[in-house]
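Appendix B. One record, verbatim.
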Amino acid sequence: MACQTEITRKVIEKGGDYVIACKENQPTLHQEIQEYFLYADENPKEDLQNTRHVQKEKSHGRLESRTYDLIEDCEMLHRFHDFAGASSIGRVRSRVELRDGTIRADERYYLTSLSGAGAIDRFAHAARNHWGIENSCHWVLDVTFGEDACRTRDEIAAQNLTVARKLALALAKRVPDEVVEKYSHNQAKYTSLKKRLFLAQLYPTFMMEILLANG
């Protein structure tokens, strides 16, 4: 939390805006924003500056809809005075219907400095990009390390493993393709991140290439 408040201060000082995802590991922030939106849903006639943007997409045999809500200048914002420039709270509801009829729903909450004309469109763009990056990172970690299959119960151990996985991926990405090809005998299939880490197990010298690569 302290890290986030410092980041928001620096962003505002530089004249920028921010959109911060509020996750369940920040229980107070997450719960208060969630409860405020529930209140707004139940009291639609209240004088709340609530704007909405809806997106619908159909691709790869699935139908996806996202509903973006942004409430500006709400009374609860004074509770988050540590976040410089906090001007609104946001919510994103997604609903995905797969080809087999399976439905997946998700809901996320945000604290942001965005306000005024065009704020809802900027919020939707930022939240969509953040979601895409996070999903992409999770997919890579799961494919490469089987992260979803990890059954570590200890919270600190789980956090340490996540850091170690992300560090390993970041280091493996830095190695130039020509170096990978040299160790894989020019087999293109070994340029994937998973194969790069496999080569590091086979060749200690390639492990050093990963550790010492200049990205």
